[in-house]
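Task card 7
Instruction: Convert sequence to structure tokens.
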Amino acid sequence: MVKKVSLLYKNANKKLKIEENNYGFIKDLQFNSILKIMTSESSSINSERVIVSVLAELCKDSDDISYRYNILQDFIKHPQMFSDLKSAFSTMAPIERDRQLSNRTRADVSAEYKLNNGINILLGYCDVCKKVAEVLKTYQPGDLSEGLNNLTKAIFGYIENDNYNELEKNLLSLKKCTKGYLRLKLGAKLDASFKLKDAKVMDIDSNGFISKYIKKDEYIKAHIARRLKKLVRLRPKKWGNYVVKDIDFMLEENGDEIKNKILNSIARILEEMILNVSSFLRNISDEILFYEGAVKLVQTMEGLGLLTARAKIVPMEERNFIAEGLYDLSFALHLFEKGCLNPLGKIVANDIYINGEKRIQIITGPNQGGKTTYIRAMGILQILAQAGIPVPAKNVVLSPVDSIFTHFPVDERPESDEGRLGEELGRMRTILENATKHSLVLINEAFSSTNSKEGSIIAQDILLALAVIGARCSFVTHLYELALKVENINKGLEKLGVECSQLVSMAAQYEDRQNNSEHDLESEIKKRTYRIIPGAPSKSSFAADIAAQFGIRYADFTRKSL
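Output:
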């Protein structure tokens, strides 16, 4: 039996739950560009499903996060080892197909075929173990992380065991036996009517010959001693006062039944052994798919000159989110796809400090000022850090979260009778019902489908609820009036007499610049800096200069007509 080991968890009894869910964070955080990089070199159809499951799991154990990070660094440091391991595990594919086919057809095949197929499958898995051991044998324990040392010990503990060598020897002998080269010495138990009760293998005759029949005298004496009362009259022979069956004929009559029972029993034993070793190898193979994606992502980031850091994980109870030089990785990869070879040169990084009671950020500022990019970067960093992957920032101190909730604008569904506002409120209710003080909530331009007065009232209630829950939240909004109420809302929360998250106003920055052109009717244009810092809310979204960029102001059309 192979000792349990995992490359994702220090406790090998834990197991990744592979989900089929369509996670909302993938679209809201534009994670598709990241997943595209992570799955770009994988030949497995399960690659994206496994990677998304690891990312969505949000590992909360700091030891497991560190465990994963160190394994990932091993694979980056030893690319040939990682390549060879992937190659070794890839040889499982045809074995897995044979096993699936065998399971589907097991009721329709002979005992000999079932046994022979089980032997081939188990020998195939044993060969995979040997190939993995061949890759790992050149590395000393001090060269590798705890996770890979655990894998090395498990593999060598299996293939170097005396039982493994005996198993392989017996499997090869059985394989010959199914081809008719050897014979099995069988023991059979019959009832008083000479019906088969039990049968087992006594020995495998390596000389290719065994006595065809059991000695009649031994058989008769044994059954007389048991005082048989019922004997079937079939080709009878008299012996004293008893009538017995001809032993030769009896064996011939029960031969197929004995053979099938024996071979099916051996096949069932092999199935249990196959289940153990295949489960071990398949779990490691799935985990390797995650590391394959993580290695590719880190290599891509380094190749583009993007900054990365190892997140320092602190206890959940601290509810910290401290990031210096944080940038939106999905946007950086988007720029790369568009041909930009130095994305970091075109991206503005931000610093985020959530390490006290002020855990809820109300973010206002100009349209296209970087607000959405800011909260998207927060979500991406949190997910990658908890997966054990280097994060897109200069320095990070982070508490794990139990969930990330995103609330971004979605297309209105024609079949829904709720309307856009009703749909938004329904999603928000789900967040409030499930969020805890250890959750991260990212809200982007909620309640824009109603007027600012009603939107502010609804948003204030939502934020009060999140504050009482104690969650971390970044709320991007066009509701200038809401941001002005931050101080009064905090005073109201203090009066509750319970520990609540406090609100802080954050503003996307811009610079004024004068345009001296006599022909330009817009005398002042706002230049976005994409920096977001604590401060008073901006009084306008500055939509006018976005309209100016596209030349769709009234003045643009009147000027053209002159």
